[in-house]
Design goal:
8% of the residues lie in helices and 40% in strands. It contains 3 helices and 25 strands. Helix 2 crosses helix 3. With 349 residues, it is mainly β. The longest helix has 16 residues. Strands 1-22-21-20-19 form a 5-stranded mixed β-sheet, with no helix packed on it. A 4-stranded antiparallel β-sheet has the order 2-25-24-23. The protein has 2 domains: 295 residues, TolB, C-terminal domain (Neuraminidase, 6 Propeller); 42 residues, no CATH class.
């Protein structure tokens, strides 16, 4: 297993500061992260500031924020999870302190709806943490940390569908699960089973147990209260191994590949992957870092023609400039370079 440290990695963006703050662009224990691949935005759940902040992935500039402290619709209390639902043009937020899920418009971040089921006999949304979208089955997966279980809601109206799991250490049981992602390509649910210091992989069809990996410790492949996870475009699993002060990367089958350690005593707690730009974002105490995936995990990401519309603005501008130059220079070598190769070149600048 290869060892890397943040001090050895070129950091694309560093948001926030070592100390917590309340101004725009500062955080007080940021939690879940989500990329809007279409617009080049990064959404950060700013937990103890009771809001969500939005940043450009081009230069890290502050774009907007929404939410304020309270228990009314459109207000938040210690929010935790976030998911981007492009099909319905909305943002889903786990309003953990209010035991509910709320939604905002993805286009203009206006408030849309509030679903509070804490009094339902079907499901008690007690201490919600994670949320993920199961596109194949038109469902929303919610991680109910306080009940040690997972639940499915309807993607259309967020109504309750089913729940599964219980407290325990056996396969399919959980102790304070903290996050989950859907592996659409493999029809799997990957759960960060924090209190059991492991990751469990379940079938997204019926929730049945498939396999698990990890145990408590600080060696390769072990965890100490992992908090967040994501998958990259190869199906590799990246885990925020919080109390071991590192990120760990695994194959889709749970075999350890590499770790990225913190050098400033900061605890990585959440991680997200931008499949269209090849970026990894993770929280570390009161900061958020964004790195190029290839800086840590080589060959994770390559440009393709279908990704050009999602390119960072700096690369788009460079390509436009080069295209204009070669259009006025006859029979130059530059005129023979296709756009996709230019994207490849400029992605490394």
């Amino acid at each position: 297993m290869k060892h890397h440290y943040l001090s050895d990695i070129e950091i694309k963006l560093s948001l926030g500061s070592k100390e917590h703050g309340h101004a725009d662009g500062q955080f007080f224990w940021p939690r879940r992260l989500a990329f809007d691949h279409h617009r080049g935005l990064l959404f950060v759940v700013d937990r103890h500031n009771h809001r969500v902040q939005v940043f450009s992935t081009d230069d890290g500039s502050f774009v907007s924020k929404f939410g304020e402290e309270g228990n009314q619709p459109g207000q938040l209390l210690n929010p935790w999870g976030i998911a981007i639902d492009h099909d319905h043009d909305r943002i889903l937020i786990v309003d953990s302190g209010n035991s509910r899920v709320q939604s905002w418009s993805l286009s203009d971040q206006s408030f849309l709806s509030c679903v509070n089921q804490s009094g339902s006999q079907d499901i008690g949304l007690f201490k919600l943490n994670g949320i993920a979208i199961d596109k194949h089955h038109h469902r929303v997966l919610v991680v109910i940390t306080g009940n040690h279980e997972l639940a499915f809601l309807s993607l259309s109206d967020l109504s309750f569908l089913s729940r599964f799991g219980s407290r325990g250490v056996r396969p399919g049981q959980f102790r304070a699960p903290s996050a989950a992602v859907i592996d659409d390509d493999r029809h799997r649910i990957i759960v960060c089973d924090s209190g059991n210091h492991r990751v469990q992989v379940l079938s997204s069809i019926d929730g049945s147990f498939l396999f698990e990996f990890g145990s408590r410790g600080n060696q390769s492949g072990q965890f100490n209260y992992p908090q967040g996870l994501c998958i990259d475009n190869h199906g590799r699993i990246i885990v925020a191994d919080c109390s071991n002060y590192r990120l760990q990367a695994f194959t889709s089958e749970g075999d350890p590949i590499s770790f990225l350690g913190s050098t400033d005593g900061e605890q990585p707690s959440e991680v997200a992957f931008d499949e269209h730009r090849g970026l990894i974002a993770f929280t570390a105490s009161h900061r958020v870092y964004v790195i190029g995936a290839n800086q840590w995990l080589p060959d994770t990401f390559t440009w393709r023609v279908d990704r050009h519309r999602y390119a960072p603005s700096c690369i788009k501008q460079a390509i436009l400039t080069m295209t204009m130059i070669r259009s006025v220079v006859d029979e130059s070598a530059m005129s023979m370079i296709p756009n996709e190769l230019l994207f490849e070149i400029f992605s490394f600048l």
